[in-house]
Write a structure and sequence with these properties.
alpha/beta; Dihydrodipicolinate Reductase, domain 2; 6-stranded parallel beta sheet; globular
């Protein structure tokens, strides 16, 4: 017996497409799930554009007032796809009305908002999740499996980069529907909340809590025209950020993110080095994970010298995470599949009674690191993150 899950999505745009596609495709590839998403309402301020989007993705109706949506009895779940500054009010109101919550990252503008949102969903006892979709890249999920199998051994180093180049031109404006990520009042931060939040979430999922950081940020273009006012205004977001990190397990981390890396479009990489092995990933070549094995974990024996070397694994076999849901081995999946995996894990968690991660509380820990990074950049010193000592394990 299947159950309808009536979805109201707040906002649209790039993430709206990714989420809508996941709702549409879920039942075809995860037919065992009891819940079947129904695209009931699309809510956005611009009715004309919202109606166009709703027609494309077959939402049943359009609404422009989110307050009406969260109070409707015919809505089961709210998907927050709107800009960061709207998250806190939306989430708290939806929780008060007993709606399930799915929220785009970062969870909030800052830790204070994230704490209020987490408290609201936990007091309401509602299922909740945050769309840190990169955990659901099959190769990254395989990296987590490699770590869980103790093939890395004692970790020493974690390094991450997330590079783009789309804001280099000085005449790119800030604000408005397309460029709100450059407006500090709407986004909260620049690359730290937008890009490094992904890197931080992945790092703590693979390597445990980040306990302290020291950071530096830069805003290369100091003023940009604001699309809504037509006036030149100071730019308040960080264009680039670099930080050093210490993990609870004693390992060291380096993180770098910028939107000023000419030629880099979505260059998201990580590498974890340990006593017994290393693992490396590049999102621009996402079907592969690179693995170096120095010691076999089952026996502790060193790998034969004549076979020592980096191994490139094509993550498309049925035994690899998620891949039994898709095509025959050798055929790859893409970016859009990560959202389908995230949604499937979320619903599987609801139906099994073991919630999938990351939920709001888990995403709050990433928010703590982001806030500590920005605080360190202001103070020019090391800052403790306050991240909880344990991180829940994500469902795969």
């Amino acid at each position: 017996m299947t159950k309808p899950l009536r979805i109201a999505m707040i906002g649209y745009g790039f993430m709206g497409k990714a989420h809508s596609n996941a709702y549409r495709k879920l039942a075809h590839f995860f037919p065992e799930l009891e819940h079947r998403p129904e695209l009931t309402v699309l809510c956005a301020r611009n009715r004309e554009k919202a109606e166009e989007f709703a027609r494309t993705w077959s939402y049943a109706e359009v609404e422009t007032d989110w307050r009406k949506v969260v109070e409707r009895d015919d809505i089961d779940a709210i998907d927050i796809c709107s800009p960061n500054h709207t998250h806190v009010e939306l989430a708290i109101a939806a929780a008060a009305n007993g709606k399930w919550l799915m929220c785009e990252k970062p969870l909030a503008m800052n830790v204070e908002e994230a704490e209020r949102m987490t408290q609201a969903v936990e007091e309401a006892g509602i299922p909740n999740m945050v769309w840190f979709n990169y955990r659901r890249v099959p190769a990254i999920a395989l990296a987590r499996q490699i770590v869980d199998e103790q093939r890395i051994g004692r970790p020493f180093h974690y390094r991450a980069t997330y590079l783009q180049d789309w804001t280099i031109a000085e005449d790119v404006p800030q604000g408005g529907a397309a460029l709100w990520r450059l407006d500090v009042d709407v986004a909260g931060s620049g690359v730290t909340g937008d890009l490094l939040a992904h890197s931080i979430d992945t790092a703590m999922w693979l390597n445990g809590p980040i306990t302290r950081v020291v950071a530096d940020t830069e805003t290369f273009v100091k003023e940009r025209m604001h699309q809504e006012t037509g006036k030149m205004q100071p730019v308040g977001i960080d264009d680039a950020c670099m930080f050093l990190a210490r993990f609870a397990n004693g390992s060291m981390g380096t993180f770098e993110s910028t939107r000023y890396a000419r030629g880099r479009k979505n260059f998201n990489t990580f590498e974890l080095n340990g006593a017994d092995g290393s693992v490396h990933f590049d999102l621009e070549d996402p079907q592969y994970i690179d693995f170096f094995e120095h010691t076999r974990p089952a026996t502790g024996d060193k790998v034969e010298d004549h076979l020592t070397g980096w191994r490139r694994i094509h993550v498309t076999n049925f035994e690899h995470p998620y891949m039994d849901r898709w095509w025959v081995p050798g055929c790859t999946v893409g970016y859009e599949h990560t959202f389908i995996h995230a949604l499937a894990d979320f619903l599987k968690g609801v139906e099994s009674g073991t919630p999938a991660q990351p939920d709001f509380r888990n995403a709050l820990q990433t928010q703590r690191v982001c806030d500590a990074v920005l605080a360190s950049a202001r103070s020019r010193g090391w800052v403790d993150t306050g991240v909880e000592s344990t991180q829940p394990v994500a469902a795969v």
